[in-house]
Amino acid sequence: MDVPAKGGFSFDMCCRNGMMEKKGFKAPGFLKTGTTIVGLVFADGVVLGADTRATEGPIVADKNCEKIHYMAPYIYCYGAGTAADTEAVTAGRESRVVTALALLKSHLFRYQGHVSAALVLGGVDCTGPHLHTVYPHGSTDTLPFATMGSGSLAAMSVFESKYKEGLTREEGIQLVSEAICAGISDDLGSGSNVDVCVMTKGKTEYLRNHLLPNPRTYVSSKGYSFVLGQTEVLATKITPLKQAEVTIGDAMEE
Amino acid sequence: MDSAFTASSSAVGEAPTSGEHRMGTTIVGVCYNGGVILGADSRTSTGTIRFLLDLHVLWDVLALPWVDSAWGTGNSVADLGMYVANRASDKITSLTDNVYVCRSGSAADTQVISDYVRYFLHQHTIQLGQPATVKVAANLIRLLAYQNKNMLQAGMIVGGWDKYEGGQIFSVPLGGTILKQSFAIGGSGSSYLYALLDHEWRDGMSQEEAEKFVVKAVSLAMARDGASGGVVRTVTINADGVTKNFYPGNKLPLWHEELEPHNSLLDILAGGSPDPMVQ
Question: What is the CATH number of domain A37-211?
């Protein structure tokens, strides 16, 4: 009755990696989404929101990335944590939110927190609107409003003061935008724009870049053009890429 | 006992939003003269939990939320509650219609254990043709906890009612022991309740008395334990079925420093009396 069964993730590499890091080997970086993601349940369904900044250490790798992942026609999932992990986890065909939740949960628990995906899962199915948060170790919570990511504290303060039951669609979108803006302004890992996704029975509206609170204010009137010769060329080296030809030879004969 | 056992965990100083979720918690289960009452707080916190077990003594880390560094390095250190991830979680989950379990420890581990046991019990009920007994449910929890003790951090209290033995409470702490008791407490807040239970517990209370007692116990622990808080949820299981109650924070009894001050020196000074020492 062991959990997990034979197979599954082997953690041997984690020990080796730890040992190598101690010896000075620098592990390759990865694209993290230090982020603000939020969700709330309103009168007719669920509203999800996220910022659009993807960071790689201190650098903004993508100023306008999409953090929403489609799971089923009316179930969407916002992911914080490493971008690759959230992409890998959210490939499914489910049509009930609790099914999606169970799949995410078991996948993440098997990897014991090494799959660094923290998700806000929301959707409307035949049993009504649902909102869940899923943490990297595999625990889940079911809540009327939720925030995740590095900006979650800033966003939660907005929700805690302004959320009430039975919000209208406009109020819900407004509140979600406010919460994400709080994350954008008060958290270093979140920034750029606000994405919102509204799910009601039979209808999903993805409001990509619903708010653009960080427009690029300075644009050179002269434009940016670089005349040939403006940059000094020191050396040129051309490496032709050769096509490798693989000949499938005859099978060896005994 | 094993020597140094280091739990894999996040480093100290990590952002409060990315630590593992623990239920630094207070859970209580009591038998009364007709069934059982289970009670719990509702706080799920994130935070670090780094500990090395001393050679000869097994510390129940969840019952001793801190051991100062004055004790020297290499002793138990746990720091719960850097952020409250869920202030209204439900820690009393159903295994069957007549058996519930209070969960403490790692949120992910206890949720997965409960899901597995609910699944096993469902099959068992079908095969048996009648509701499962509390003893079977508790033993299934215990088997999972014991056989995977190296990988799990889960302290649970199983309580329920069946027609053979009536109301029963089984405690399954870290490590996978199983203990049948007339009352059980668990979680980080339980250390504040041992003396209270020893002093005030009586067998054969009525349902109202037992419910009041459980609420009192959990709220006392919540007042003193930083990792417990929120609301108090209770579940009463007896021959008639299951009743769930909810006590929001502002309906709980106030203790000690939370009460309005009497004869406060600040009020006396504000009253403008020239000599504060004159009553």
Answer: 3.60.20.10
